[in-house]
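chain below, 129 aa
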Amino acid sequence: MIPSKHEMLLSKFKEEVCRDPDADFAPGIAALADKFREQETKRFNGAFFMLLLELYEGSIPSLKRDLLKIRLLGVAKATPSQRIAILQCVYRIISLYIKDDFAGIIAICEDVEDAYRMEDGSPELDTWG
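prediction:
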């Protein structure tokens, strides 16, 4: 089994601590935190790229062309039919990370709906309990 990058970073830090337990580790902890953030950024960027690549069915030239168009012309809202296509793609990618457990996302949606009802003073809030 190959250790993850996080485990390797922690192992190296542990070795430093074991060599000199009385040393000041504040700079080392800060450096370790920076490396962790860097790893998470790379992981997020990789997942986001996978999402875009899935959305564009592997066509990198089309993806690049559309990214440049958006950069130059701005962003337009997706139509309802486009949103479901995008959601299907996003669903596949996110399910890799949350193992098809979308209950938390559904709960957040329900909380937001309840908050909107409370703001609007909608009588429907009483039926939701």
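The two ends are 50 Å apart (CA to CA). DSSP finds six helices and no strands in the chain.
thats it, cya
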